Amino acid sequence: MISPALEQLMKEHEDTMIIPGENVANVMKEHPLEHALLLLSQAGYSTIPVLDREDHFVGLLSLNDIVKKMLGIKGIDTANLEILTVADVMKTEVAVMRPDAELEDVLHLLVDSAFLPVLDAEGKFCGIVTRREILKAVNYTFHVFDRKNSETKVVVHANSNTVN
Ligand code: AMP
């Protein structure tokens, strides 16, 4: 269990921990792979969330998955890019979280994923929590915790001086 004092400090970063959906590059599951490949290269990310028309999260699409589909026996075959859609190659077994997830669970899941899609109770996409943002919050927490600890020691020391 994470100590309540540390959890409280981490929560001071809560606002920046979730990247809101409107700032996250995504692709529709109906899109042809060719379009998705363009989107991925423009966004500059190797993996992005896949949504349906009602904004439900349905999977993740990675550059790697697209390239694998293009690799035929004779080398790269781009014909598949026009025939297949995002739904044909996306990963659907994906770790996700709710906006109110326990910090401890989030930390465990981020060991194996660079980011976690955040979904509401209806499965609608709210944004992502990235390992990078969590590490920034952890870094902040460690520094502030250390400072608060040494301040407390100074106060205790000062008080004990007064008593003596
Ligand atoms: P970072 O920790 O910022 O390197 O992000 C880790 C991963 O999260 C990236 O490789 C992307 O797959 C995903 N990601 C981060 N920010 C965004 C964004 N604004 N839009 C789409 N995907 C993102």
TrEMBL record:
Q: Which Pfam families match?
A: CBS (PF00571)
UniProtKB keywords: CBS domain
Name of the protein in question: CBS domain-containing protein
PANTHER family recorded: CBS DOMAIN-CONTAINING PROTEIN CBSX3, MITOCHONDRIAL (PTHR43080), CYCLIC DI-AMP RECEPTOR B (PTHR43080:SF30)
Q: Which NCBIfam families match?
A: CBS_CbpB
Superkingdom, taxonomy of origin: Bacteria
SUPFAM superfamilies registered for this protein in UniProt: CBS-domain pair
Enumerate the spans annotated as CBS domain. 18-78, 90-147
Q: Does the keyword Cell membrane apply?
A: no
Q: Which InterPro entries match?
A: CBS_CbpB (IPR048125), CBS_dom (IPR000644), CBS_dom_sf (IPR046342), Diverse_CBS-Domain (IPR051257)
Which ranges does the record mark as transmembrane?
none
